[in-house]
Structure formats: structure tokens, C-alpha cells
Amino acid sequence: MAVQPRRAVITGIGVFSPIGIDTAAFWQSLVEGKSGVRPITHMDVSEFPCRIASNIPQFNDKFARDVFKHSRDHAKSLKMMARTVQLGVCVAQFAMADSGMVKGKIDPTRFGVEFGAAIVHSELDDIARAAKVSSNCQPGSVSLQAWGEAGLKEIPPLWMLKYLPNMPACHVSIMHDIQGPSNTITVGEAASLLAMGEAYRILNRDLVDFVLVGGTESKLNALNFVRQSLFQPLTTTRNDTPDKAVRPFDRDRDGTALGEGSAVFALEELEHAKARGAKIYAELCGFACGFDRDRKGKAIAKVIRKAMAEAEITPADVDHVNAHGLGTVESDIWEAAALRDVFGKDVPIWGLKGFLGALGPAESLIELTGSILALQHGHLPAAINSDNPDTALGLQIHNSGTREIKKPYVVKLNFSDLGQVGAVVIKKYTN
Amino acid sequence: MKNRRRVVITGMGVVTPLGHNVPDLFKSQLEGQSGVGPILHFDARTFPTKFASQVKNFDLAKFMPDGAHWAHCGLNTRFGLAAARQALDDAGLLDNPRIDPADIGVYLGSGEGGHDFKSLVESTARAVPDNSYSADPKLFFAHSRRTFNGRHEFEMEMHTTTGRIAEAFNLQGPNMTCQTACAASSQAIGEATELIRHGDAEMMLSGGAHSMIHPFGVTGFNLLTALSTYNENPQKASRPFDASRNGFVLGEGSGIVVLEELEHAIKRGAHIYAEVTGYGTTADAFRVTDSHEDGRGAAAAIRNAVVDSGVAPESIGYVNAHGTSTKVNDRAETLALKTVFGEYAYKLPISSSKSMLGHLICAAGVVELIISVTAMHQGVLPPTINYENPDPECDLDYIPNEPRQKKIDHFLTNSFGFGGQNISLVVSRY
């Protein structure tokens, strides 16, 4: 096929994270080695084994409304959104602003949106009255009859819409008049990376010239927190030193922490970006995904290689791997097997969950922002909490000092707890 | 037309309110049966809507050895496993020594697992002091930590259906899940088709699974007044395009297809049902709940799918509509079809499977596609039942009430999701 493949570049970044609510603050925290994992103070979690999380205390309804002070309709629509959704739409706004793209400057049918998201759980207060009238608090005494008769109508009419996972993409499409493809990927911690991969494919096949690609998550309301605490491998031994608690690839790792955040990128076709004089952060040049059923790393390695093959690179071209680095005993062993297989000890591994915790469908793009900024600045700060890398993992961990960026490519990897894995390759953009 | 890889359907499987396999399902469609009845999954006697279209007598053990292994999974995952097994078996991919299942990917549009309604409501009630309407998290935690089941809660997560299916059958190819409500399984099929066209995979399991027939699902939709409340005659409640339609009927189930690159299928002697020739995907950018009144996003998706297929619009022989039985959708969809097909829209037979099955939400698109593929094979188009009162704003041919013998070579199927995602697929005789 003689057709030139369409190239994709990142021309806008919005990031809202536990370590900074814009790219400058985010980068500064990386440079200073400042973790965003903190004691949980917004609710009483004293009974839980894990009492820390990476939240964003600055984010509230007023903050969100201020983001949209230019539009009463948009500000109003925030009321109909769960916190997770609000985060996503605010950060999409930042990404649009950063890209310099405005509604009207692009054909809406050539504009797409892809979001990574997960199930969003209800605020208890939305169902508090309904629950009260349906239960008299004796064991097993919830009455569906009472719920149907009297409880249901105590719930806000638009309740379901507040919490649907496709609402970030939906609201973003309404706010920015996006009439191209809209999709919401729900593959846990790989979700926003897979969303970016699909955005890449949509752009490759000439359906769109510009895609907002994002991920958003807030796991810290009461219902979500209790659920997650029952099945997530959370750290329990460092509640008093939360900034040291999440320890990717470290000998003393014991689990992850939950959090919240969002990142949104503008992914744009290269010629389109050049024609409008957009600033270009990096190029997206490879994507692959798969499923590692055996949990021994073989399929993950295959996915990494597939992404590198698309980018036409080998490990020798890779400056660092922006790893998943969950910080549990099992997951890091699993991941290390794949990383060793592909990169040996030759390529430094960089995992940001010591700073961020595990942000579910938001984490891939938030973590990737770190590498994009590193490529821009020309150096890579140390990843924290990997002070004593587990030697059994056989990896080179970039855990101290600042390292000069030596090569143009970065490989980004994330996978879900079930083994659903995504990998992308980005490249420092040179004219 | 385009010099690109072609994608065919080589296997299909379903679990639906009208049959747990494709032949049974299709037979029910020709007989105009309704899957609707009183809600049995929970006591819905006092809910505004007391009926739904439920899967009946489903036993996962009939499809999967060691059915108990999946006991904590939601209905979505259990339906999905059964449909996936059927599809793989149908495609000759199960226990086939010449095929490495690790080369097969999975892309589903699927929803959440089951909620533990009683534990959640009781825990919340205990957390609300008598003179307040606000829940105290600490009190909530005290009860919920004791009563919630961690394994069950995990299986509610949206990546688990795809993950459990990949696990069960050792499918290691590209693995994705999307959740765009009513459009999801069609979108999964479209995007999976594109992955094969692009060369990311040779074989993909695709489709979806969902069950929202639970207290929170019915509550949520009733609050939005999206569901029909025709409790006096539930089997007549789903009446797409009828003038007295007033909301959709909730269904549940799963459909899975095997999508395969054409040369790959031919080489291994696979049975080929049909070819996925066109895919259109657009967003409305209008409102959260209602489609654009002019059906502009829907029209664009339909048009894009037809153009992508290379098929002349007048060669499309049948439309399986989204046809939810809501005032807004059926009108907007009719308008969209007229916009794209012009005068030919009046010659185009259209029907809505939702008249019989109800709305399977994430699983709707794939099940409707499977019905349409079977219709193309057998030369009989299923009807729209409960069509009694023509609506002047919906004045096309909806194959009212009786099936129709017709040989078709291409059909269009539409799925327009809550949130404004519009998906259309064109599927052709191979």
C-alpha cells in the first residue's frame, strides 16, 4: 500500500493529579520526589487496614464551576455529574486550552473522544433517604416493596446519569461539539492506555484529525472505598508514613493505595497539527494490547514487542520504560518477568505509583505525562520508594538521581488485575 | 473497493430471553413471541415498572464444565461465558489442535455485574441518623465491611466479563471492553472489525453481555421515565414505531460472534455466515439523554457505514433498527433513515427486535446483528410486533406483526446509545 500512514502527535495535555493540578506542578513534584499519598481525612476510616489514599483536596464543586465560568450551561451541567465525571470534563477543558484548539476551528465530524473509565459508585447521600424508608435496620429487613413504593422517589431523578461511566466522554462531546467517534473503555487500570490506542487507530484510518483522549477516576467516596478495600491488594504497614507506602519493585513493597485524578491528551494528526502551528509534545508511534492469562509475563512481553514493532524500534532505542509498577509482591514479579524478557537490565524502569498510588482507568495517561514532560525537559527524575529494588526481579530501576534522557523513545505499559495489558510507544518529536 | 483486509463472521452464540441458542432465538422471532413477563429476579411489585424481558431457566453448568467456578460472577459474565462457548464451538475453534486460542482476542461491550442491593441499602440505612438525611461513612463502614462479599464486589467491575472469558478459553489476543450503553456491543464489533482490518488480530470474539434487571437498574431508568409502565399488558409494552409507544422494556442477555479475517477463515475451512462490510461511528454532541431531534448523528453513522461498505444504498435489503419504543428514538431514527436513503427509505423493510426481546442494553446490538445474519441466511425477515397504531411521524415499512419472506444480500443494523454514541453496521452475504 503506497498511502503514507497518518501520524499522531500529542498537542495538548491536561493533568489533575494528587501531586499537581497542572503539568508544571506535576513535574515539580516529580523533581522534588514528593508523593501525593496521604492519610485519608475526608471520612473516618480508622477501622480499615489501609487508611491512606492519594486524593486531590483542592477539587470540589466550586473549583469545577470556576473551570466553566465562561459557560453557564456547562457549569450547570456539572451538578448532574459524579466527582469522577467532573474531574474528567474539567481536565478535558484544560487539554483543549493547552492545545490551542477551539470549538469551531475543527470540523466536528473529524473530532473524536475516547475515555478510560470504570464503574462509578453512588454517593451515599443520593440514596440515604430511600434507604432509610426501605429499611428498619433489623437484619435482612430491607423491603423492596417499601423501596418501590416510597424509597425510589426519594432519589434524584437524574441519578443514573450522574454515575454512568460513559458520561465523561458524553459531556466532553457536548461541551466541545465532538461529532466523530465517541467511546469509553472500561478495562480497569489499562483503560486510558487502551483508549489512547483506539484513538490512534481511529486517527490512522482517517476518520478524525483530532481526538481528546482521557482517563478519569475517583475511588474515594464511602461506597467505592469500602468495596475496593475488600478486593484490592492495598498496603497496610505504612499508614503512618503514607508518602513511603507504595513501593514499586522494592524489596519491602506490600501493596498499593487508591486515589483519584484525571489526564486528558489532545491527539492530533501530524500534518493537521503542523498546519495550525500547534505545539507538539511527543509522537505516538506504536500500540498493542492482549491478555496474559498465565500471569507469568510471556503475553505481556509479546504485547510490548508488538507495540515496538509497530514503532519500528528495538530495546536499544528505548530511553526508559514507564512501567505499571503496582507495588504488590505478586504483580511486580509478574511484570518484571516480562520486562526482563524484553529489556534485560539494559533499559531503566520508571514506575510512578510511589507518587500517585493506583488511579485505575486514569493512571496510564497521568503516568505517561511524566515521561512526556521528561522528554521535553531532557531529564528523568528518580522514581520514589524503590530505594531497595528487589534483586530477584532483575531490573534496572531508576530510583536515584536525575538521569539525562538519552534516547528518543519511551515504552508505556499498564495491565489490569486480570491480565488485560496495553502498551504504547511514544517518541520525542523532532521536526 | 478498498484494498483492505476483509472480516467475516464464522461463529455465533446467544443467551437471550427467547432462547439460549441461535436457532431457538430465531424461531421465536419468526413466531412473533415476546420474552416479557413479570420481573422475577427481585420483588418489583411496587416499582413503577413491574415487568421485564428476562432470560429464563439459564444454567451455566450446561455450557461450562465446573459452572460453580463462576458463582460470584454477575449474570452478565455468566451469560457471556455461555454465549462465548457457543460461538467458539460454532466456529470450530474449541479444542481445535490447529488453532492456538492465544491468537484470538476479545472485544466486548458489556456492563456491570450484580449489585448486593440488600447489603448496600441496609448499610446505608444504618448510617443515617433518625433526624438526618445524610449518611455517616463510619456507620456505613461498620455494617458494609461485615456484609459485603469481596469476591462478589470484584465481579461487579466492568473489565471482568471480558477478563473471565479470556481466562476461560485462553484467549490472549487484543483485549478491550467498552461501555457505551445501548451502543456498546455494536461498537465493540465495529472496533474489533477495524482491529482485524488493521492487522492487529486475525480472530476476535466480539459482542456483549448485560443485565440491568435489578433494583438499581429499574430504579434508575424509572426515575428517568425511560421505561414503559404498561403493567396491565407487559407483552404489548414494547411497541417500536407505534403511535402509543411510551418507553422501552428492559431485557438482559449476551451475544457473541467470532470475527475473522477472510483469508484466515477460508484457509482453515471455516463456515462463513456473512461479512462485516461497513462500520459507522459518530457522536450526537447534543444532550445526555435524548438523541438529536433531527437524528443528525444517527444519519451520519448510517451514512458512514453504508459508504464504508461500498454497497449502494438501494442494495441494502433490510434494516434492523435500534427501535427502542421510545417517542424520541423511533422518530429520530425514522428521520435519519429518510435522510440517508431518501425515497428508497419507503421501500426498505425495517424491524425492531426489541419489540420481542426488549432492550438488552449493552448486549442489544450483537443479538440484533445475530438475528439479522440468520434472517439473511434463511431468507425471512423478522417482524416488529405490537404494531397496531401507525404514527404519522413514523411512516416507513416496519414489517408489522408478521415475518416476511425476502432474499437480501446486505442489511444495516443500528444501535444508538445513551450518551449520544451512534453505531451502524452493514453486513453482507458472503
Describe the structure.
- The complex is a heterodimer of chains A (431) and B (430).
- In chain A, helix 12 (298-311) packs across helix 13 (329-343).
- Chain A has 15 helices and 14 strands.
- Chain A has helices at 23-32, 61-67, 72-77, 83-99, 124-134, 144-151, 159-163, 167-176, 191-204, 222-231, 270-275, 298-311, 329-343, 353-356, 363-377, and strands at residues 8-16, 38-39, 52-54, 111-116, 182-185, 210-218, 258-269, 282-291, 318-322, 349-350, 379-380, 403-404, 409-415, 420-428.
- Helices cover 35% and strands 19% of the residues of chain A.
- Chain B has 430 residues and is of the alpha/beta class.
- Chain B folds into two domains: 8-114 and 155-428, Thiolase/Chalcone synthase (Peroxisomal Thiolase, Chain A, domain 1), CATH 3.40.47.10; 117-154, no CATH class.
- Helices cover 32% and strands 19% of the residues of chain B.
- Chain B is built from 13 helices and 14 strands.
- In chain B, the strands form three sheets. In chain B, strands 5-4-6-7-1-8-14-13-9-10 form a ten-stranded mixed beta sheet, sandwiched between helices. In chain B, strands 2-3 form a two-stranded antiparallel ribbon.
- In chain B, 64% of the residues are buried.
- Chains A and B meet through helix 5, helix 6, helix 7, helix 8 and strand 5 of A and helix 3, helix 4, helix 5, helix 6 and strand 5 of B.
Q: What's the helical proportion of residues of chain A?
A: 25-40%
* End-to-end distance of chain A: 25 Å
Could you give the order of strands across the largest sheet of chain B? 5-4-6-7-1-8-14-13-9-10
How many helices of chain B does DSSP assign? 13
Q: Return the CATH architecture of the largest domain in chain A.
A: 3-Layer(aba) Sandwich
Number of strands of chain B: 14
Mean pLDDT of chain A: 96
CATH-assigned homologous superfamily of the largest domain in chain B? Thiolase/Chalcone synthase
Please give the domain count of chain B. Answer: 2
Can you write the helix and strand succession of chain B as a string? EHEEHEHHHHEHEHEHEHEHEHHEEEE
